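Work Package 3 (structural annotation) set out to generate three-dimensional models for the target panel prioritized at the project kickoff. During this period the team completed the workflow that converts sequence records into discrete structure tokens, so that structures can be stored uniformly alongside our sequence database. As a representative example, we reproduce one entry of 123 residues exactly as it appears in the project archive.
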Amino acid sequence: MDKIRITKSNTTIEMPRVRAIKVGGIAVTNEVEMASGKTVKEMKGFRTTITAEWDWLPAKTMTSLHTLLRLGGYFKVEYPDPAEGDSFGMFSIPPPESGVFKFNGTEPRWHGVTLNMTAQEVT
């Protein structure tokens, strides 16, 4: 899989092929200070993060993406995972960062689009 699919309710957006994708994680910990003054850190797990980048994204896709993301909450995201192959999960997704808007031929496109996604679940 070299594409990302984002779904909420009955609406699915299949994004074009990504230029770059980074799958990482944020450590989720609980720190407690003991009566002795010693700090103890308990590791809960990791929250998956995904950063996907596109060189050019059609304006129609960008409009659909903004409309879907404005619904808020969590979205089902299907993505390529380096450890598990094709994977999916529930992610929060803020509006995408984008660069310049221009016409590529006769088709309007956004250049340099980046989506950052953070998993709901800690694994």
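Strands lie at 5-8, 11-14, 20-33, 39-58, 75-81, 85-92, 101-104, 107-122.
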